[in-house]
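Continuing the series of single-chain predictions for the mutant panel. This is the parent chain; the variants come on the following pages.
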Amino acid sequence: MMASLAPALQDLELDTKPEAQLPYVYQPLKHKGSIRLIRLAPSESVSAHLQCRLVHSHLAHYPDIHHECISYAWGPATLTATLDIEGRVKMITETLAEALRAFRKTDKPRILWADAVCIDQDNATEKGSQVGMMNEIYAYADCVLVWLGPPDDRTAHVYDLLTHLCAVSAEYGIKQERITFGDWLVNETWDEAAPILPEHKKKLDSIASDYDFHGMDGFYGRSWFTRKWIIQEIAFARGQGIQLHCGPYSISWDDFITAARVQYRSVMRATLKNHRLPINFQYTKEIETTRARLHCQQQYCLLRNFKQLKTSNCSNDLDHVYAILNMRGTKDIEMRPDYTLSVSEAYIKLAQTMLEGGLHVSVFSYAGIAHRLAGPFASNENIVPNETASTNDICKVLPSWVPDWRIRHENRAFAEGNFAAARDGPDKIIVDPSGRSIQVNAMIIDMMIAGRTLGSQATLNLEQFRQAVLTIRRFYDLNQFRIKYGGNEDAETIFARTIVADLRESATQIWLRGTKLEPEMVDLWRQFSSVPVRSQPVSNIHPPIAAPNKTTGGAALYDLSDVIGYTLALRNILQGRLFFVTKEGRVGLAPVNTHTGDFIALFAGSDVPFIVRMAEGCTKDNLQCYVIGDCFVHGVMYGEFAKKMGKEVYDGAWKPLTLV
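Parent structure:
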């Protein structure tokens, strides 16, 4: 029965008799696991009309049937090119037409898979099923053919440079040979603070003058690098079988990554030089890191995956979720793509299944009203009203506890740090079947009184940035009468720890690895706050290869590299957040959209506190709140509340709280 599904691909002949430009009609895929493959007719002419057949195959037949997958950016949604399928016409994008012409053989048919042709895009049920199998389709492919588009006047130079950097990579301390995926995960190449051998330092320091890197921005700036779909398309593919094509030029993925690692390490050495990473370079690192985890079968947290790939683009808002569902770990949620759902329905369903799948309140760190107002959005469906809308209006379509995965977050959630604010609390989550609300065990511990934001950092040079941070310190000093001190900490220590959230946010740990809370953090703050900094835009800062030099003193200008890590930490953490003082005399960091009168709550099982706002119609007996966002509160982040209250009182203090 199953064998009958495998057509003899080599025996299929193309029917070239047209039927008066009739549109192609898809034949249904009748069996679970069935897919379509393109049998592209050969041509000696690059400009010849594209002709093919679509043949049905089955995943169960692999590796007996061979195919290659095309990975490309759809480009503009307008379908202006034609593909002749068995004498009928299928309209496709010009980008796909370019790729098919580039990959068409001159002497024999080529068996390919491309989503826009092999999936009936007008059949939502089939589309969901096929998208759910894309990880297998790409994993079983003989090769993944990446189409970056036609060449420009710098393409030949860029490909020559990439090929050369790969060939001489050993001179920069980079292994050219394919290392095991397990080693790749801990390989020091991606580690900004990794030691560099003396014989490699000179080469790395001179790379910017040795080579012409003009054109790299144009290469990495191609739209393919920003597609969310490419993460799984490359991650599941076999390394030697991935080829990056740009017009007539090509390079293997392994050689490309080797060259990228050389460039990455050289930039980490060139903190103050006119040498930087190309735009969109971070996607290359994300793709290869994801691929490494998947191939060495490490647990890859789906929640972290959504967050790390936050700036990738999709033409359909549903794909911000569906493009990476296949990369879930073995203990993650079970959810299949469903294109019959609206965007809000899909996002609510994902949040529900995550919570029911054991991710618990970690989900809430990526939700909250503050994220939606901060934006920016990668959006095609307007779930969220404008900034002038009321809290109630904002949550009418998408509840506050549901993450909106279209949003490009500018900083990381505090939950990604090493905190344990209420980890031992009796977590209990009840999901309302309607998807409109969820009930958690919570403890309201404080209320917001006043706060101060940093303001926009985009146009600030380093000295202006430093002065803006010092205004927060003056706000802190003016509110000293409110603050209650505990233990042996003084006012300066509390501020120095709070302003950088104890340096536990993962985005900053790579810059200040090994920094201890005391006294080094206070020393870093004193250096930053007391000495003027060179005038350079904050956006141009690059991380150092080592931790900051803590020996600088006096009133002279210090080198940027001396405090670069601390400055990066401040920038990453303070962007989009405010420094606050509470009714009970605590200080911390919260989303900029936090209001006076908002509450600080612990959710049982959570690693961090949250800012919540009472919902309309909320009563003492029926507490309903909106989630604003997660926060850092000094004196709360490490389970101090539980220790102070005692286990019996602590366990009995939790009350049900409904999040809407």
